[in-house]
């Protein structure tokens, strides 16, 4: 069971969230941001996620969020911002500060559970990707050019974590590659659009539907590819699928209108967290990224990535 820190200055809201999530997760409660920050500092490894009210006395949710994202101990801790301030400007501010998950009060128990599960799944995936790729560094250092095929969720997990070990910041690169490759499979090759994915996640059938479509004999030879080319300073990666493309421009940034959805963050997260930029080509069934491997003064670059 995941352990969540729930932060809200209204006791009734803490009670409602506790009732919705009890039995599924371990819960700890704080009545304002200052108490929450003290609890986090006292046990930085104790929590798997934070459900954070925006407007509170002493220290508000935005200040807690800024502190979390500025502290290396908490940078991968998913934060679900909840607030009655559901206007586009407030949502955009929260998203820009690092709250990739947002709930506007009042919300349904189903919406809360869906967002919480999505946030926890994302975090577990990131950690799994790093563990899988850790042992392969020596072999990967010998690769300058390669082409890989992938079609399943397991393929994506293994390949993204493995290739990320060639980069200075493997955890964020693994996440970014995984999201781009997942889009190539689920949308490009299997034709699951945004609305359908939302329904499948809400019904708890997303992975089941992916596997069902992959098992279709008509799709047996359907795969996507990822190609890499490395030189002294850069690693170029290109992902192609067999689909007809999509309107990728809508997903380069996290639109406040989609902030309350349980999915739809992948491309924006890849662009803003893993890569400084990325480039979709043609109709959207090909995407390229370039990662800087060394800085101009020598050594390893940990900051920017360029297309």
Structure description:
The chain has 307 residues and is an alpha/beta fold. It has two domains: 3-107, 3-Layer(aba) Sandwich (Rossmann fold), CATH 3.40.50.2300; 124-292, Heat Shock Protein 90 (2-Layer Sandwich), CATH 3.30.565. The chain is built from eleven helices and ten strands. It has helices at residues 11-21, 33-42, 61-70, 88-97, 109-133, 137-140, 153-164, 170-189, 194-202, 206-214, 266-274, and strands spanning 3-7, 26-30, 49-53, 79-83, 101-104, 145-150, 224-230, 234-240, 279-281, 286-292. Strands 2-1-3-4-5 form a five-stranded parallel β-sheet, with helices on both faces. Strand 3, helix 3 and strand 4 (79-83) form a beta-alpha-beta unit. Helix 7 runs antiparallel to helix 8 (170-189). The chain starts with a strand and ends in a 15-residue tail after the last strand. The relative contact order is 0.10. Residues 296-307 have low confidence and may be disordered.
């Amino acid at each position: 069971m995941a352990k969540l820190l729930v932060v809200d200055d209204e006791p009734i809201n803490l009670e409602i969230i506790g009732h919705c999530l009890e039995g599924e997760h371990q819960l700890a409660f704080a009545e304002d941001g200052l108490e929450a920050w003290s609890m986090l500092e006292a046990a930085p490894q104790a929590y798997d996620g934070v459900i954070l009210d925006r407007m509170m006395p002493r220290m508000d949710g935005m200040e807690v969020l800024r502190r979390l994202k500025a502290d290396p101990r908490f940078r991968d801790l998913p934060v679900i911002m909840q607030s009655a301030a559901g206007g586009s400007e407030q949502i955009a501010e929260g998203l820009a500060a690092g709250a990739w998950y947002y709930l506007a009060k009042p919300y349904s128990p189903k919406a809360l559970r869906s967002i919480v599960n999505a946030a926890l799944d994302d975090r577990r995936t990131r950690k799994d990707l790093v563990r899988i790729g850790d042992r392969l560094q020596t072999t990967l250092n010998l690769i300058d050019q390669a082409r890989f095929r992938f079609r399943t969720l397991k393929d994506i997990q293994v390949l993204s974590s493995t290739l990320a070990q060639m980069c200075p910041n493997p955890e964020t690169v693994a996440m970014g590659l995984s999201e781009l490759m997942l889009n190539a499979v689920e949308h490009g090759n299997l034709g699951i659009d945004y609305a359908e994915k939302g329904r499948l996640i809400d019904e708890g059938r997303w992975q089941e539907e992916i596997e069902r479509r992959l098992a279709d004999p008509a799709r047996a030879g359907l795969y996507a590819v990822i190609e890499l080319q490395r030189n002294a300073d850069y690693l170029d990666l290109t992902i192609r699928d067999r689909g007809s493309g999509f309107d990728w421009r809508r997903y380069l940034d996290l639109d406040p209108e989609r902030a309350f959805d349980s999915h739809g963050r992948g491309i924006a997260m890849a662009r803003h967290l893993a890569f400084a930029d990325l480039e979709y080509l043609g109709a959207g069934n090909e995407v390229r990224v370039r990662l800087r491997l060394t800085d101009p003064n020598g050594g390893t670059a940990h900051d920017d990535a360029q297309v």
